Amino acid sequence: MAAGEILLSVSDLWQKLGDAQILQGLSFDVRDRVRPDVVTGQVVGMLGPSGVGKTRLLRLIAGLDDPDRGTVRGPGGATLPVGSVGLVFQSYPLLAHRTVLDNLIVAGEANGLSSSVARTKALALLERFRMSERARYFPAQLSGGQRQRVAIAQQLVAQKTFLLMDEPFSGLDPSALEDVTKLIVEVANMDELNTVVLVTHDIRSALLISDTLFMLGRDRDASGKVVSGAHIQKTYDLVDMGLAWRPDLDLDPSFPTIEREVKQAFKAL
Amino acid sequence: MAASTSQPVPKAGQENSNRSLLGRVFLPNQVLQRPFLLMVTAFWAAIALVLWSASPWASLPGPGEVLRAFGSLWWQQGMGPELFSTLKLICHATILTVAISMVLSYASIIAFFRPLVEAISKLRFLGLTGLVFPFTLLTGGGYSLKVWLLTFGMSTFFVTAMAQAVLEIPREQYDYMRVLGASEGRIFWEVVVRGTLDKALDTLRQNLAMGWAMITMVEGISRAEGGVGALILNQNKHFHLAEVYAVLIAILVLGLLLDYLMAVSVRILCPHVLLQRVRR
Fold first, then answer.
1. pLDDT digits (tens, 9 = 90+) for B158-211
2. Across the interface, do A87 and B183 touch by the CB < 8 Å criterion?
3. Residues contacting A187, CB < 8 A, separation 6+
4. What is the DSSP string of A173-184?
5. Which residue from A56, A157, B21, B181 could staple onto A107, CB 3.0 to 4.6 Å apart?
């Protein structure tokens, strides 16, 4: 696949919830980011205020809901049937009656892997996510951070290009937050085409790991009054700005400035 | 300025651990260790026994009298086979109840069957007594009548509770499995069947108790096949109060044993459930 090719195309998406028009003609593309000699996946941050339709958007991309109008396409314009796009829900649901290992095996079997292959992949993922010693635990025995790691690992048992994450940074302490941001970058960089879309309020974390930031905001009329619908109001190409793929970005003297700018833009959404 | 005090300030949690056991027994939401729980239970059992022994009511025979009556019933009046007969009846009815109720409850996820499940659930308001005649016509009476009356009585409540448990499965659970790529059949198995197994066992436990409570009435309808229900009604007719209480206690003990076995089944089949429960 050529550099800059479209991996995910959301085009003219409309969605109503009851009588309220949530999304109105929402469009954006995610393109393949290429770095010479480095496997580089995509991390896309989607910032927006509460109730703007971020979770709705994730459900549409994951194929859980059908849009009233518009399309969601994958590489080469392919449709994305439900199950082909991973989604880590905000509450990290897991099968409560199964152990951590079995939760991962179920995910593999659900995607057509044999039990033995699913088990091998599950064990490798638990090792990679530093969860091997919790393999026999039930979800009720895990902390919030551990639950999140299992929920992410579960989505990776079967190879999926897209991983959507709903508020992955909420409720995490600083140490867990650092772990999760590292994990997301690691997941994205497992494959050149891997694309992680994060929906979040956490501007700082999104800035630190994303290569693209979309600002999803409510539509306004000429007088500035909020009207129904939402669309991408601003896009930050952090690669062009020289801010992407930098582990020490928060130490850069220019970081507070860009963070402040994004915060200002967020307030206007 | 407030005067300083030499009293040390207790740290969080220290106050609780410093409380005496006796104090904690009387406080709300305290978690006690098993030996202390057993002591509290033994205390109440002793109180009940003392009250029973000291009872001034002639209609309540003393423990010794009831014990003697139990011996007489067991050795001379064939109480053992009667209990076996009752157990056979309740087991038969329970198997039918589980089979019918589970199929109906799980069918409630299909829109076509929902009105049927709703209707069967509503039948729980019908009294069993009024249904004896139509059930006699349908089953031909005797053992079949008792089995189907019990099955009907238990199933209507079982279906109500289980259909509700299935209805209360959060939408997110289905969506989460769909996102994983699971087929609808796998989702049904993992989310609906396995995901509610603990609730099914708990519901069965409650329904078994209800069936056990209905047993005397049902066995009284057709006494030819015996059973403890028939036994208790016969003793009642002759006003043998000590024997009546002996049978009641036997029913209670056997019921508690069944209940315990059900609790053990939940522990074995659904160990994850225990992790979410706090024994207070």
1. 999 999 999 999 999 999 999 999 999 999 999 999 999 999 999 999 998 888
2. no
3. A41, A152, A156, A163, A194, A196
4. -HHHHHHHHHHH
5. A157
